Amino acid sequence: ETGVTQTPRHLVMGMTNKKSLKCEQHLGHNAMYWYKQSAKKPLELMFVYNFKEQTENNSVPSRFSPECPNSSHLFLHLHTLQPEDSALYLCASSQDNGLNTDTQYFGPGTRLTVL
Amino acid sequence: KQEVTQIPAALSVPEGENLVLNCSFTDSAIYNLQWFRQDPGKGLTSLLLIQSSQREQTSGRLNASLDKSSGRSTLYIAASQPGDSATYLCAVRGNTDKLIFGTGTRLQVFP
Hints:
The complex is a heterodimer of chains A (115) and B (111). With 115 residues, chain A is mainly beta. Chain A has no helices and eleven strands. In chain A, 0% of the residues lie in helices and 56% in strands. In chain A, the strands form two sheets. In chain A, strands 2, 4, 5, 6, 9, 10 and 11 form a seven-stranded mixed β-sheet that branches. In chain A, strands 1-3-8-7 form a four-stranded antiparallel β-sheet, with no helix packed on it. Chain B has no helices and eleven strands. In chain B, the strands form two sheets. In chain B, strands 2, 4, 5, 9, 10 and 11 form a six-stranded mixed β-sheet that branches. A five-stranded antiparallel β-sheet of chain B has the order 1-3-8-7-6, with no helix packed on it. Chain B is globular.
């Protein structure tokens, strides 16, 4: 148990659907992250939130929309996705101490399939 | 632009062997390097984190070394067990919140 939970664990959606991924951390951390893991490619950072403020948007298409209502919850809203968006979406959290020395703790991921 | 490479991409060894996984990075200006383990269909578990000022870190049968000037890290696993079978990921952190990951080494330890 890493203290970071993600729901749902699996999601199949059509290209016209709207869905949301949820992440919750129980570690008291102040930074949260969304990553995308596609087959045979390195993990790609998508978004970073620090104290609920978005500090990084790694050139992610607007069909992915993050939301961070508080420091414990992070959402990824999905709409009009493409089949190439099928991947494992991982959430992580860390205690940002301003020194770039913190460890990130990952959730189990949501396996997304876009038909 | 930082790039992280891991070799080999896959490794299959009999139980009990000592083994070394390699990670290289192109920009030596890093704050730290982290090794993760990922089981199939699961998230990542942090194994070891080495700060840029450190040379190595140890945890149980795992030892990670860092040679920042040459852009290399190794993960040494002693007396491998079937339960060590997983994908091992290396990631480096520069002066931002970004972790840059390699593509991983898929390890299988057979009895």
